[in-house]
Design a protein that fits this description.
Blueprint lengths: L25 H46 L10 H12 L4 H8 L3 H14 L4
Helix pairs in contact: 2-3, 2-4, 3-4
Amino acid sequence: MKPDPISEATITSMKRPAWRGPGSGKDAWIGYASALEDANHVAFGMVDKQSAIIIELQAEIELLRGQIASRKPKGGRPRTDDKTAARIEAALAGGMSQRKAARLCGVSAMTVSRVAARVAARGAVK
């Protein structure tokens, strides 16, 4: 993994010149502004380095996702049809247990569990 540029950063504090009185002259404020400019230049340099690292990592993630997708077997179990899913949802909304709803609809308890999870994700039935 690439090192984070912030881990190499040093934190410095700068004291703002006084508003009036000793140490509040033009030269003090020019020095303060110059120090702030230098600090901002360093900070933006770190941001640029981090942005480059993020872009590289995003490209690597896309490459890995493509590799994973190519390894997945094609096909799989077809989705439960809408009529059956609606019957399962109605049975669960009526207070029926998942096992009874599975027997009633002629599907496995796992199928009922998946439909219940989708319903819960939508927030329709708890």
